[in-house]
Design a protein that fits this description.
By secondary structure, the chain is of the alpha/beta class. The chain is built from 24 helices and 24 strands. The structure holds adenosine-5'-triphosphate.
């Protein structure tokens, strides 16, 4: 589980300065198209199909949808593809973004009866993709969502007895597999967007391969595996899946022109905003723009900046509707970006890589790709996960470009030079090679796989990372390391939580420490997307209103205060509205707390040094309090934190003040070695 922090950094002065610079820059470039002069140069034109797109006006017009389906590049291959997949145990399918893999292949297989009455599972790396794609496929099949076609993501299961095509996050399927390692409910498992190589997808590769083999051995119904992507190292995948045949789909749906920056951009945010306004001045309304940025704070400040500038540009282009899109945004606001643009305006979506794969956003004609992403990196020596802004891979760049050609031809502006692009890695480094593996190891042990080192990983993580994960689980009391690595009774309990093992342990020992209610409340608040809602227009008012919840003990107690206040008013909608609290996420937190029943964060502790700096107790490296924390201006002697992120400095997020005695009590074996110096 990834924990996130919520409030965007307040940086008004910086933002004003930025707007000023931008205005100057824009006034120099007035009237010039990015494509007409530097900083962009045209690269390539992918031209194949060209036809107009039927408007749906919010109605499900099945005739039009069927026409659209028929025009997809995959459609002519329907019969052949279905026959090939029918005859294979495993197939690797590769086809351009937008060719129709995700939406059509499961329908083809269902229509032809290849699923033999059982369920076809289609995994997606992100929940927003699982939800929106299933909505689309339900529409196309003329059924209500949750009937023939449904989805399952954490805390939301929209399926029924009659569901035969089930879109789900890879994490959900992995969790199901711990209860049923043979995955008997499914006849076909489609692992979509395989190039993303999320940690869950990588573990699933091994788990579904094993399920397929074991079902064959036991004489059970066969399990068909389909691995799909637009961009992947096909040989590597084919070899891993016992030399599975690769099926190539021809054709891209709409052409997308790609422009590169002619010079290296030192400030990609500035370059993206300048590009946006240049486009905006010269293009008609209803041609929308999708900008890729790295994270919530950057997105929120960019959104503010675009809104500020647009106020000064009345009359120079259509009105702008600017929407942020990132994982911590409440789901209903995430889904809002998929709505049609109001007539005569232009929608600008500033998104993280959650908009990168599978999704189709109505109206997007232009993509501005900054070429960067926030990725999790793990240092096995320090045992720490860091979130760091890194260059995307070529595969990711291609996916981003593809978002501009979903409904008609489009254009992608890359805020980097062609030479820089050439230096990008071909494929994304699998998450499993760069993340803390304690959850993975716990899950594999729960599946009865104790020989972790020899597990059939497509790309084996380093022995150090695996050993590091086992050590961490051992420190948490989840495993024994005698003859072989085995789950302890506590470890077995930990598996049942959809949480990071440190949080699971926290919950499990809370009871003995007589603080179960408090811990469950805090953990559930940390497990859902942001519960604080800060509309741009009422930012000051929202922060002022929520001040009453802030605790000098830190963010965890602040969450507890909100949780208790919410419960005391029995989840009153009006109360949430008045206090700028997100009702839906609060309800999810309540559900989460009900679903679950000591402090595992002892490893995430930091100590204040004489010089006024903090150092992490596990790595002995300098760390800083994140500006978004309520403890930002304080200097407590010891703190614990949920997450470290590396931007300009290494920041701790979601902090609480802690008494060092509690750290020794929680994990004496751990702190014996690294006893903090007193004073
Ligand atoms: N939610 C949606 N609303 C409107 N059109 C959609 C939607 N989802 C898909 N489409 C249309 O169907 C086409 C095919 O989408 P699909 O996701 O099946 O392609 P894909 O080959 O899997 O692409 P990718 O690799 O990018 O996921 C899109 O280009 C778009 O025109």
């Amino acid at each position: 589980m990834r924990l996130r922090k919520r409030e965007p950094k307040e940086n008004i002065e910086e933002s004003k300065e930025f707007v000023k610079m931008l205005r100057q820059k824009l006034s120099c470039n007035k009237g010039k198209m990015p494509s007409e002069e530097p900083p962009y140069k045209k690269k390539k034109l992918n031209s194949q199909h060209s036809h107009s797109h039927a408007s749906q006006n919010g109605f499900v017009n099945n005739y039009k949808l069927q026409q659209e389906r028929r025009r997809l590049p995959i459609f002519p291959a329907k019969h052949k593809l279905t026959q090939q997949i029918r005859s294979l145990d495993t197939a690797i399918v590769i086809g351009e973004t937008g060719s129709g893999k995700t939406t059509q292949i499961p329908q083809f297989l269902h229509e032809a009866g290849v699923h033999r009455g059982s369920i076809i599972a289609v995994t997606q790396p992100r929940r927003v993709a699982a939800i929106t794609v299933s909505q689309r496929v339900a529409q196309e099949s003329g059924t209500l969502l949750g009937h023939l076609v449904g989805y399952s993501v954490r805390f939301e299961d929209v399926t029924s007895e009659s569901t035969k095509i089930k879109y789900m996050t890879d994490g959900m399927l992995l969790r199901e597999s711990t209860l049923d390692p043979l995955m008997k409910r499914y006849s076909i498992i489609v692992l979509d967007e395989a190039h993303e190589r999320t940690i869950h997808t990588d573990v699933l590769f091994g788990v579904v391969k094993k399920a397929q083999r074991d079902r064959k051995k036991k004489g059970l119904k066969p399990l068909k595996i389909i691995v799909m992507s637009a961009t992947m190292d096909v040989d590597h995948f084919s070899n891993y899946f016992n030399k599975a045949p690769v099926l190539y789909l021809e054709g891209r749906q709409y052409p997308v022109q790609v422009f590169y920056s002619t010079t290296t951009q030192s400030d990609y945010v500035m370059a993206a905003v300048v590009t946006l306004f240049q486009l905006h001045r010269d293009h008609p309304p209803n041609q929308d723009v999708l900008i890729f940025m790295t994270g919530q704070e950057e997105i929120e400040s960019t959104v503010r900046c675009i809104r500020d500038i647009s106020k000064d540009m009345v009359g120079e282009g259509p009105p702008l509707v600017v929407c942020p899109l990132y994982a911590a945004l409440p789901s209903h606001l995430q889904l809002k970006v998929f709505n049609k643009t109001p007539e005569g305006s232009r929608k600008v979506i500033v998104a993280t890589n959650i908009a990168e794969t599978s999704v189709t956003i109505h109206g997007i004609k232009f993509v501005i790709d900054t070429g960067v992403v926030k990725a999790k990196l793990y240092n096995p020596n320090s045992g720490l996960d860091l979130l760091k802004v890194v260059r995307i891979s070529k595969a990711q760049a291609l996916q981003r470009t593809g978002r501009a050609g979903r409904e008609s031809s489009g254009t992608c502006y890359r805020i980097y030079t062609e030479e820089e692009f050439d230096s990008f890695k071909k494929n994304t480094v699998p998450e499993i090679l760069r993340c803390n593996l304690s959850s993975v190891v716990l899950q594999l042990l729960a599946l009865g796989i104790s020989d972790i080192v020899n597990f059939d990983f497509m790309d084996k993580p380093s022995i150090e990372s695996l050993i590091g994960a086992v050590h961490q689980l051992h420190s948490l009391g989840a495993v024994t390391k005698e003859d072989c690595i085995k789950l302890t009774p506590l470890g077995k309990q930990m598996v049942s939580f959809p949480l990071d093992p440190r949080l699971s342990k926290t919950v499990l020992i809370a009871k003995d420490n007589h603080c179960l209610e408090e811990i469950l409340s805090i953990v559930s608040m940390l497990s859902v997307d942001s519960v604080m809602f800060t509309p741009q227009s009422k930012r000051e008012e929202a922060l002022e209103t929520r001040k009453k919840f802030i605790s000098s003990d830190g963010d965890h107690v602040t969450y507890l205060n909100i949780y208790r206040a919410f419960k005391s008013v029995r989840g009153n909608t009006e109360w949430c509205h008045e206090n700028f609290i997100n009702l839906r996420n609060m309800r999810l937190a309540l559900e989460c707390s009900q679903e679950m029943s000591g402090f595992g964060f002892f490893m995430n502790a930091a100590e204040l040094q004489k010089e006024g700096e903090f150092i992490s107790l596990s790595s002995r490296k300098p760390v800083n309090i994140h500006p978004s924390s309520s403890l930002f201006m304080c200097k407590p002697a010891y703190v614990i934190y949920n997450e470290l992120i590396q931007t300009t400095k290494c920041y701790m997020r979601d902090l609480s003040v802690v008494d060092p005695e509690w750290l020794y009590e929680a994990a004496p074996h751990y702190f014996r070695k690294k006893k903090p110096k007193p004073g």
